[in-house]
Specification:
Helix content: 55-70%
Radius of gyration: 31 Å
Strand order of the largest sheet: 1-2
Largest sheet: 2 strands, antiparallel
Distance between the termini: 50 Å
Structural class: mainly alpha
Amino acid sequence: MARKKVKLAWITNDAIRRSTLKKRGKGVIKKISELTVLCGVEGCAVIYNPEDQEPEVFPNVADARRILTSFQSLPEGERTRKMMSQQTFMQDRITKMKEQIDKAEKQNKDMELCALIYEGLAGGDYAEVGVENVSAVAWALEENIIKVTERIRQLMSGAPAPQTADPGPSTV
């Protein structure tokens, strides 16, 4: 059974907040332990609890100190190479989403163009189609005629067909 989504907000009840800190702290340490074993990387955690005198340290104080010293001794560029702020992360996500939208819009335009071509081949009328779409259909047909003519020339000369990694959507 799936758990309900936890609302991320300050827990006002002290007992529940302490309990949550203890449980989630153990969960964080377990995750770091799993990462170090599964991925063969070094990792450490220091969790300060206002209720305890000493912070909880994983794997132990000496190893955590060694790992942090090793990290601090790296050059600034090496340390921050893969770090990301929230703003940078969001900008990257926005850029990727815009690229996906542009790609989807191009695919939609190609599919609409293909549908118009097939409609015309089936005897449809272009009377209600805009000038821009008719021009696009004419351009696509000319491009396809050039490709077909070139392929016929290749077949007549006995040359093999060119290999393409991604032919993309065909307009005809």
